[in-house]
Write a structure and sequence with these properties.
It is a single chain. About 25% of the residues lie in helices and about 25% in strands. It is an alpha+beta fold. A hairpin with a 2-residue loop joins strand 25 and strand 26. The longest helix has 21 residues. About 40% of the residues are buried. The structure holds adenosine-5'-triphosphate (ATP) and magnesium ion (MG). Adenosine-5'-triphosphate (ATP) binds next to strand 8, strand 21, strand 24 and helix 12.
Length: about 600
């Protein structure tokens, strides 16, 4: 492609609305244009990158035996009602764009395809002989994200590869899951990314197994905890660890003390000159279940620990049945306005004790449970002679013990947030480290959730009908493209990994009025493309400096300059990643570049 004929517009200045380097660079270098919040035009250079990523994804999927298909983006509400997700996706989380057609039928724009694929499987899979089966697709997904941001990282319209596998039993699912783990690792390695596969939260569906593939970058929205021995890595939402040991309490007598201005753990620990590990902290949450029932939740946890809200959500989902509900639609810390709706008097915030009375909740409210749901975290359960609130502002109690001074809640949970510095479970001498990551892929053992809901069954060898066992696997193709930039740029612009660069080489003619320069460039341009090296030709009427800057900004791996050294029969080849310049005889350019590219793709 000749730059003189391309839609090629680069910006000198950083665009005002871009916050992270990769977003700025993709805009500046003319890869994308914003059309609306979270909606982007993928310009020709970016499309080439997306196609390369997709090609790698296809190769790695196909070798596992998965088959490509293409499912509808327009999905009928009925399918989502069958799985029970229509209301959560369109109302509670509101992530699905929904519309009504001219026949008054409700439809959603696909954010994901479990329902559609399960409906296909229900119709087409009859027998164990057809299993296992794995279908995948690469297509645009729609999600009405609350906070679309960072360009392609969190779009409302983005490209995903999603795959769904069907099995007769969980052993077969595990085998495919293992293949996908390998395929995803291969994809990221081949795209030239530094990544880590981490244990991920699999939500309330079940603990069977889930991994996320995190591309390591400071701008990542996720936190990963890992140990240096390489034995453990998990998303902080899921991570487990040993907390530091509690310091034994010196308060041997149970009494109430005046503790003015100590609403936080730190102010209290300073005032009493005690360790936060001697304090039982009482955290209030408000959960709303899918039947509209609201429950106030009081969690007792050790003072130095924080509640992991993902773990808490999972526990509360398990308890949904107690409230005649099946799922949770919201979990929040009730603010003053929310408290007014149910509290009989103002709450002693910052001074709450584990025995906060149920009479704080107005009786007779139809949608609000009249009793606190009391949960004790394992870290608080083991404490003795502890410090905690007194239900009176400005006062705490010290020397408290469970079942003596406070009733121990019946339900014990593990909802503490693992944190950097904790000891690892597998080897307490290993200390958890923290890193930021961008979630690029997610693989998931679904089990029978969707097949049961939609009635997708198969007949086994003994003639019995069973629900299909399922797995699902997603890679953010457009997010991956931007994540590659986030991991690889310098002050002059993007530095694409060779495997996914839009073009591998660019021939730059410093002066298009110099006939020799033009002739050599044309000849190289034709020879390189002919030999399969994807090459651009910068034949624009621009100063040499501008051309060099642009080639660096757009990040093409090899720049070939037909400049002064032509007189000696050479061109200069500059490697984008290192800035290294080599003089290469004209007749060796093609073979040299082919060697370099081959080495880069293998490396
Ligand atoms: P996140 O936690 O980042 O919201 P998710 O868990 O909702 O992602 P999945 O449903 O697992 O995402 O989708 C599979 C992959 O699709 C993700 O790993 C990610 O790479 C990509 N993806 C998800 N949401 C977006 C988005 N809004 N924009 C771009 N890519 C996305
Ligand atoms: Mg995910």
């Amino acid at each position: 492609m000749r730059l003189s004929q391309m839609l090629f517009v680069t910006l000198r200045e950083d665009p005002a609305d871009a916050e992270i380097p990769s977003h700025k660079l993709l805009l500046r270098a003319g890869y994308i244009r914003r059309i609306a919040s979270g909606v982007y035009a993928y310009l020709p250079l970016l499309l080439r990158v997306l196609n390369k990523v997709s090609a790698i994804v296809r190769e790695e999927m196909n070798v596992t035996g998965a088959q490509e298909c293409l499912l509808p983006q327009l999905q009928p509400a009925e399918l989502w009602q069958e799985s029970g997700r229509w209301d959560t996706y369109t109302k509670a989380e509101g992530i699905m764009f929904a519309l009504v057609d001219r026949r008054e039928q409700h439809l959603g724009l696909g954010p994901t395809h479990e329902e559609v694929i399960t409906a296909v499987a229900r119709d087409m899979i009859r027998s164990y002989r057809q299993l296992p089966l794995h279908l995948y697709q690469i297509q645009t997904k729609f999600r009405d994200e609350i906070r679309p941001r960072f360009g392609l990282m969190r779009g409302r319209e983005f490209i995903m590869k999603d795959g769904y596998s069907f099995h007769a039993d969980s052993d077969s699912l595990k085998a495919t899951y293992q293949d996908m783990y390998q395929a995803y690792s291969n994809i990221l390695r081949r795209c030239g990314l530094k990544f880590r596969a981490v244990e991920a939260d699999s939500g309330a569906i079940g603990g069977s197994g889930s991994h996320e593939f995190m591309v390591l970058a400071e701008a990542g929205e996720d936190e990963v905890l890992y140990t240096e021995d390489g034995q453990y890595a998990a998303n902080v939402e899921k991570a487990v660890s040993l907390p530091v040991e509690a310091v034994p309490s010196t308060f041997t007598e149970f009494k109430k003390l005046e503790t003015p201005n100590t609403p936080t753990i730190q102010t209290l620990a300073d005032f009493l000159d005690c360790s936060p590990t001697q304090i039982v902290k009482n955290v209030l949450y408000q959960v709303t279940y899918d039947n509209g029932q609201q429950v106030l939740v009081l969690v007792n946890i050790r003072g130095d620990q924080d509640v992991n809200e993902v773990k808490l959500q999972n526990e509360l989902t398990k308890l949904a049945g107690t409230y005649d509900a099946t799922a949770l639609i919201a979990l929040e810390v009730p603010d003053a306005e929310a408290q007014q709706k149910w509290a009989t008097q103002s709450l002693p915030l910052g001074y709450i004790a584990p025995n906060l009375g149920d009479d704080y909740i107005q009786a007779g409210l139809p949608q609000v449970s009249s009793q606190f749901l009391r949960l004790v975290d394992e870290t608080a359960k083991g404490l003795t002679n502890f410090v905690t609130g007194s239900n009176e502002s400005g006062y705490h109690t010290v020397g408290g013990n469970w079942n003596q001074d406070f009733k121990l809640p019946k339900i014990t949970v593990d909802v503490r947030k693992a944190q950097q510095g904790d000891r690892a479970l597998h080897d307490p001498s290993q200390i958890l480290q923290s890193a930021r990551g961008i979630e690029i892929g997610h693989i998931f053992q679904l089990g029978t959730k969707y097949s049961q809901a939609l009635g997708a069954t198969y007949t086994n060898e003994a003639g019995e009908e069973n629900p299909l066992v399922m797995g699902c696997y997603g890679v953010g193709v457009s997010r991956l493209a931007q994540a590659a930039v986030e991991q690889s740029y310098d002050k002059n612009g993007i530095v694409w990994p060779v495997a996914i660069a839009p073009y591998q080489a660019i021939v730059v003619v410093p002066n298009i009025n110099d006939a020799d320069q033009m002739a050599a460039a044309e000849q190289l341009y034709t020879a390189l493309n002919g030999a399969g090296v994807e090459t651009l030709l910068d034949d624009r009427k621009e100063r040499a400096g501008v051309k060099f800057k642009d080639s660096e900004l757009i990040g093409i791996p090899y720049r070939i300059v037909t400049g002064r050294s032509l007189k000696e029969g050479n061109v200069e080849v500059v490697q984008r990643a290192t800035g290294e310049t080599t003089a290469i005889p004209l007749d060796q350019v093609v073979s040299t570049l082919k060697d370099w590219i081959k080495a880069a793709l293998e490396g």
